[in-house]
Amino acid sequence: MKILTILGSPKKKGNTGTVLEMFEKHVGDGHEVERVNVSDLNVGGCLGCYACQQNPDEPACAQQDDMQDVYEKILAADAVVYASPLYMWGFTSGIRALMERHLALVSGYGSPDYKSLVAGKRAALLVRLGGPVENNAEFIQGTFDRFIGYAQCDVAGKFMVPLCTTPDALGDEAEGVAKAMAKAIVG
Ligand SMILES: Cc1cc2nc3c(=O)[nH]c(=O)nc-3n(C[C@H](O)[C@H](O)[C@H](O)COP(=O)(O)O)c2cc1C
C-alpha cells in the first residue's frame, strides 16, 4: 500500500511530527510511506476562482504553486494521513490551505455530476493537542468528517493524542495511538 502522510505542524520534529514518525515506523515492510511537510511547501489557500470546476477529470487548479506536486502525490496514494497539532480548536493554517485546495479534486458538489478524483481512498486524522480531547477537539474532528465526506474518501480513523507537553515527554500512549493508526490503515 502507498501511504502519503501530510504534516501540518510548523515544526517537523515537534509533538505531531514525532507521533507521525512512530506511525511511519509501525506501518512496516511491504508498504511505501511518503511524507509531505507543509512547512517546506509554498501552498496558498484557495482563491475561490472555481477554474478547477471546469475540468472534472484532473486537478485543474489555476494556482501554480507546490500544491501541484501534492495533487500528484495524493492521486498516487492508496491512503492519506492528515496530521496536525490542534491550533485554536482546529487545523493549523498551513494544512488548512492544503485542505481548501482539495476543491480541485472534487467537482459538481451537490449535483448529479458530483465526482471526486479521490473517492474510495483511505484517510486518517492524527491530532496532537496540549489540552484534553473533551471540550477542545470536537471541531477539528467534525471538520475532518465533513471534509472526508465531501471528498468521498473512506475514513480509517481519527486519532487524538491529548495532554502533550514536549516530544521528549511522549509516553506509551502516543506509541499505542501510532500503532493503532497503522493497523487501521494497513490492517
Ligand atoms: C497557536 C497555537 C494554538 C493552540 N491551540 C490549542 C488548542 O486550541 N487546544 C489545545 O489543546 N492545544 C492548543 N495548542 C497546543 C498545541 O496543540 C500542542 O502544543 C501541540 O502538541 C503542538 O504540536 P507540534 O509540536 O507538532 O507543533 C496550541 C498551540 C499553538 C502554538
List keywords for this structure.
Rossmann fold; five-stranded parallel β-sheet; alpha/beta; globular; 7 strands; two-stranded antiparallel ribbon; binds flavin mononucleotide; 187 residues
Can you walk through the features of this model?
The structure is a single chain. By secondary structure, this protein is α/β, with parallel strands linked by helices. It has a single domain, classed as Rossmann fold (3-Layer(aba) Sandwich), CATH 3.40.50. It is built from 5 helices and 7 strands. Helix 1 links the parallel strand 1 and strand 2. Helix 1 packs across helix 5. The structure holds flavin mononucleotide.
Explain briefly what this protein structure is.
The chain is α/β, with parallel strands linked by helices.
